[in-house]
Amino acid sequence: MDALLDGIELQTGDTPRFAVIWMHGLGADGSDFVPVVPHLGLDDAPSIRFVFPNAPQIPVSCNGGYVMPAWYDIISLAPNAREVDAAGVRRSREAIRRLIERENQRGVPCERIFLAGFSQGGAIAYATKEGHTAKIAARLSLALRAAGIEVDPIDVSTAAPDFNLDSYDATLVCAPIHQEEYPPHMIGFARRHAEWLSAHPSAFVSVSLSALGEDDEDVEGLAQCVSEFAIATGWKPARVEHVAGALVFSQYPFFMRQVMKIIARQHGLPTTGDTDFTDYTRLEAFARDFATSIEARA
Ligand SMILES: Cc1cc2nc3c(=O)[nH]c(=O)nc-3n(C[C@H](O)[C@H](O)[C@H](O)COP(=O)(O)O)c2cc1C
After folding, report:
1. Nearest residue by C-alpha to atom 29 in ligand 1
2. For the chain, what is the total number of helices (H) and then of strands (E)?
3. Cα 180 from Cα 252, distance rounded (Å)
4. Whose CA is nearest to atom 9 of ligand 1?
5. Residue 82 has what DSSP assignment?
6. Is residue 80 very low, low, confident or very high in pLDDT (cuts 50, 70, 90)?
7. Is the CB of residue 176 below 6 angstroms from any atom belonging to ligand 1?
8. SS3 call for 162
């Protein structure tokens, strides 16, 4: 899938200043959201190029292997064992990044490119950007290095299939909660390395909005997510650090933005703009404490 994805393009005027790359859902194609554009009230807006790519045609396991347009294979929808093809997610993410680069070459910089997506397309739009958990992992790395620990940050969604932890002394696993679950690629990683993680110094850094709440519902909800993670992976983290994440409305694809507005409203949080709720002082204190516990075992 190194070639540019084909699809439908339309422009609201000459020399577009903005671009929208809009990904359809499972089984649909690029034409799906084209009829929405005339209803967006863009008559007085600057010129926009809409790009509606077609997902590749692949067999979809949860649909009996039927070949259909899909951004990635869904291997299982079973409760507690949901599994998607992480390599497929990565391939589609790279394909969308190539479309973004093409917009850059056509004169539209990243800050004027919007990703939109429905269902699977929304998941790919979200996976295409660096998440808040990556920022938290970067801050943890800095704090651990400052404490004299050699650190090797790894994005498990792009790690080689034969990656192993044998050359490491300890591991911090960081993952966000999305719709009351940790990402499938993180569940797969923890499952593959459960034995190692259980036998070595390790901790789980869980990033969520519920970490902001102090009522029973939030606390029990988080405990439930961690417990389901432990059942799904076979790794029961000895130490779990709950870290408050972020709301980044500027980066959510269209449909996800609507869902996140509802979630934010329910929690009494802002429904516009970007807000970083992470307490970095507390995060760094956790990193120092983890560093001390590794050194104590060495
Ligand atoms: C689609 C989506 C679903 C989310 N679902 C939950 C949830 O069920 N519970 C929760 O506490 N936080 C939830 N959050 C909040 C995220 O955990 C928080 O925004 C975090 O910073 C996301 O990290 P990331 O950018 O690395 O994905 C959700 C966020 C998104 C975007």
Report:
1. 178
2. 8, 13
3. 18
4. 180
5. -
6. low
7. yes
8. coil
3-state class of 298 per DSSP?
coil
Residue 281 φ/ψ, nearest 5 degrees: -65, -45
Q: Is 129 in the pocket of ligand 1 (CB under 6 A)?
A: no
pLDDT number for residue 298: 67
Half-sphere exposure of 181 (CA within 13 A, CB side): 16
Average pLDDT value for the chain: 92
| pLDDT for residue 200 | 95
Q: Would you say the CB of residue 210 lies under 6 angstroms from ligand 1?
A: yes
Hey, what domains does the chain have and what are their CATH numbers? 7-128 (3.40.50.1820), 132-297 (3.40.50.360)
DSSP H or E segment with residue 100: helix 86-105
Ligand 1: centre distance to CA 57 (Å): 30
Kindly state if the Cβ of 92 falls inside 6 Å of ligand 1: no
Q: How far is the CA of 132 from the centre of ligand 1 (A)?
A: 9
pTM more than 0.85: no
